[in-house]
Amino acid sequence: MSLTHLQRLEAEAIHIFREVAATFSKPVMLYSIGKDSSVMLHLARKAFYPGKPPFPFLHVDTTWKFREMIEFRDRTAADLGIDLIVHINHDGVEQKINPFTHGSNVHTHVMKTVALRQALDKYGFDAAFGGARRDEEKSRAKERIFSFRNSQHAWDPKNQRPEMWKSYNTRVGPSETIRVFPLSNWTELDIWQYILKENIPIVPLYFAARRPVVERDGMLIMVDDDRMPLHDDEKVEERMVRFRTLGCYPLTAAVESSATTLQDIVREMLTARTSERHGRLIDADEAASMERKKREGYF
Amino acid sequence: MTAFNTPATTSSVLDYLAKQEKKSLLRFMTCGSVDDGKSTLIGRLLYDSKLLFDDQLAAIKRDTKRRNASQNDIDFALLIDGLEAEREQGITIDVAYRFFATSRRKFIVADAPGHEEYTRNMVTAASTAALAVVLVDSRKGILRQTRRHSFIASLLGVRHVLLAVNKIDLVGFDRRVFDTIVADYKEFARNLGFQTITPIPISARFGDNMTNRSTNMPWYTGPTLLEHLETIAIEDETADAPFRFPVQLVLRPNLDFRGFAGQVASGSIAVGDPVAVAKSGQVSKIKEIVTYDGNLPRAIEGQSVTLVLEDELEVSRGNMLVPPEDRPHVADQFMAHVIWLHPDPMLPGRSYILRTEVDSVSATITSLKHQIDVNTFAEEAAKSLRMNEIGVCNLSTQAPIAFDSYRTNRATGNFVLIDRFTNATVGAGMIDFPLRRALNVHWQALDINKNARAALNHQTPRVLWFTGFSGSGKSTIANIVEKMLHSKGKHTFLLDGDNVRHGLNRDLGFTEEDRVENIRRVAEVAKLMTEAGLIVLVSFISPFRSERRMAREMFASGEFIEIFVDTPIEECARRDPKGLYKKALAGEIRNFTGISSPYERPETPEIHLHTVGQEVTTLASEIEDYLGEQ
Fold first, then answer.
1. Residue A272 has pLDDT above 60, yes or no
2. B602-629 b/e (C-beta count within 10 Å ≥ 16 → b)
3. Better-predicted residue by pLDDT, A25 or A105
4. pLDDT more than 90, % of chain A
5. What distance in Å separates the CA atoms of residue B535 and residue B517, rounded to the nearest whole number?
6. Is B546 a catalytic residue?
7. Contact assignment for B87 to A173 by CB distance below 8 Å
8. pLDDT tens digit sequence for B94-109
């Protein structure tokens, strides 16, 4: 008898959660409301059973998330009785930073990267769990499970700590932090397979439904509220769409789909010809854009 | 994502997933010299297995054109080399992890860098790999990096090698070239302990013998690269090894529950089985195996569970639960192979943090037995290890740790070494065996102890550790302090750097290694003297923080008083009581602190003396006042 692939991934993630709880003084889990966060939350509950996860959950709210994401977030926190911190960069709100007038780069930097740094500094967290996977993107494929950040929250990809076996180096100096990625070795298929097997609740936006969208630069953007300015030649139409990945609604493209169940989603994914992050407009800016954002402190 | 057996209908999805679930997993690495084509090989594997998405393909086609407009085929390396610096320099710097599945197996590939400078990243990849694909360029044959990587893979416990003789198209698919390289490789790898070595002639760029058999080499009848990866039997050694459960943390959510959380490192355990606590030897039985999904009758290798014992035993993080009849070693001295990973060299005598999976203790390398030449595998005498060098060392830890030899258990036989100040991971270690002297030399408990001797003397033993530049006034001040204490009837002794170097330490020079040993010996002597109940004054330049800290840690809390005699280097050079600065500035003395060797200022000394413009007696009184207040 030996463990299946998914059982091994689950056990590895639980081990990582426990290492952090045992060695850091103030950890936090970054909760982005997406499917990967849902899986992480589930694993965190398993890791400390019969106790509760001994750390709070942090959502960095850019104020441009889909409304259904926020509803799901608040319902999950209430149902599970977890300690949820919501942080918004109020300087950015005052400057009216938004993805339409300032572009995706500025918006993401101010409302997400800077906001995250603000929150980590404000609460003095020394370790932060993130849901990034190595199969998502090239620079992520190179990141350690315990990924060191200096006191400026910066990642130095050329000078990462060697990481051997499961003997993690969890030591940090004052105001230095570690980002921890328990899902490093999971693939998108593993995530869906696990959601299906464990019956983990996810945001309904992952399932196909008729939603108001406009076509812009070849992408389908959902009109989630009236803050979205429309060009003269654009018209809003109802289409059967779903999302493979969730972020700020103006920056996250929908795909046309009829997948209304988890099984449908998995089948669709198995035959997909584009990668998951294809729908993320922030990655397309330039080839190395993710690495640059990460060096600045983006998750 | 995978093109194999793609289910057409929703109803078949569940069947498909059930099949996926049963697949085994192979973790392998690719290694070899720069330009042997490692990244190209993985890119080609993913491409031929139809595992690349359209947008990924479009991006690398575009990037290939941008870099070389005349190139019409695809540069697969661009897919794998994800860091900007890598794409610019065209080399792999860090390990990239790739995931793919075929109808037979799931794979995690670690693509390790070839460049010698990044050997530490190769070590990262090898630590979790079961098989290594070693690439060799047909035109170049076995290179230094091929040997080095094979040796490191072997050292880290990789037992299977796939020897990929690449770029065979560039030597006209010549069988003799292949045969020569295979013979060379097998000859040098003879003593590396690989269970299998499987050579395959390939062209990663054009796909020969990658996933499809090449028509260019009818003389080759073995498996393709992918076939071999899919079918090689990797026996699960850890499943049959004795039960090992390193305790990560103690879960006590309420007064009624006390469980030990961890991941089974090897073997298995069932409810009712007897277990021993490795470090204390106490024995109990397994009462429950708790998980979120319900209690289990049995836990096996790889599972993360929480164990509840029948009895209330003292167990904390860093300990191990094991079978009473088959226990690991528990020792504070052992021999290990160490790979050095940092630009600052390893120094015997310096104090490092040693981290196993769950334990963390202070450790020093007590002796570097020899260094290993990775080309000839010859043992060579060495005083220190520089980055990427491998040595066999004796280590001593401040407290005993529980371990197995790395050969018998990769999970419980490894450790990393961490720098105390920068927290950098500086070394990787594989334990060979405990040292006999640790097994047989037990601490002799003595009836008359330090407190008894100190009480007779009516004083509290102390170490006054004076540090500062040569000529800063350490010895002058220490001398006056000793006189003051002596006149009050205190029993003292002054250890002076120069004097000790005439006797006890006359075999030591001024290299970094010798300076570390110099301090270690003096600290040990000072410790014996405090045991005898004395107040010890130590006047040593002691330029390195780690050695002052090592000295501090040998004493009880509050016993060690660090006194920073802070005189600017210009002032010391101006005073130059022994004429040493003059010689050092003229280049006649090597490794002179402040001139040609660094001095690391104390960050939080107990006493900080700013000497400029002060009388020495005033400074000495400051120390006396401090002692009076204590």
1. yes
2. beebbbebebeeeeeeebbebbeeebee
3. A25
4. 57
5. 23
6. no
7. no
8. 777 888 888 788 889 8
The Cα B20–Cα B458 span in angstroms is: 76
Closest approach of chain A CAs to the CA of B295, in angstroms? Answer: 11
B270 touches chain A (CB under 8 A): no
CA-CA distances (angstroms) from residue B172 to B138, B166, B203?
Answer: 10, 12, 11
Q: At what angle do helices A188-198 and A35-47 cross, to 10 degrees?
A: 60
Q: Report the range of poorest mean pLDDT among A116-125, B43-52, B253-262.
A: B43-52
Please state, in angstroms and rounded to a whole number, the distance separating the CA atoms of residues B280 and B445: 19
Q: Which two tokens mark A206?
A: 């992952």
CA distances B465 to B331, B471, B482, Å, are 31, 16, 13
Q: Which helix (H) or strand (E) holds B100?
A: strand B96-101
> How high is the ipTM of this complex?
0.90
Name which of B51, B162, B62 is nearest B106 in CA terms. Answer: B51
Write the Ramachandran bin of B421: left for phi over 0, alpha for psi from -120 to 50, otherwise beta: alpha
Three-point CA angle A91, A94, A95, nearest 5°: 90
B53, with CB counted inside 10 A (0-12, 13-18, 19+), is middle
Global model pTM greater than 0.95 = no
Does residue B292 contact residue A45 with C-beta atoms inside 8 Å?
yes
Instruction: Judge: A163–B53 Cβ closer than 8 Å, yes or no.
Output: no
Question: What are φ and ψ of residue B607, in 5° steps?
Answer: -130, 130
Q: Is B13 on the interface with A (CB under 8 A)?
A: yes
Rounded Cα gap, residues B157 and B15, in angstroms: 37
The answer to whether the beta carbons of residues A182 and A27 sit under 8 Å apart is no
B410 touches chain A (CB under 8 A): yes
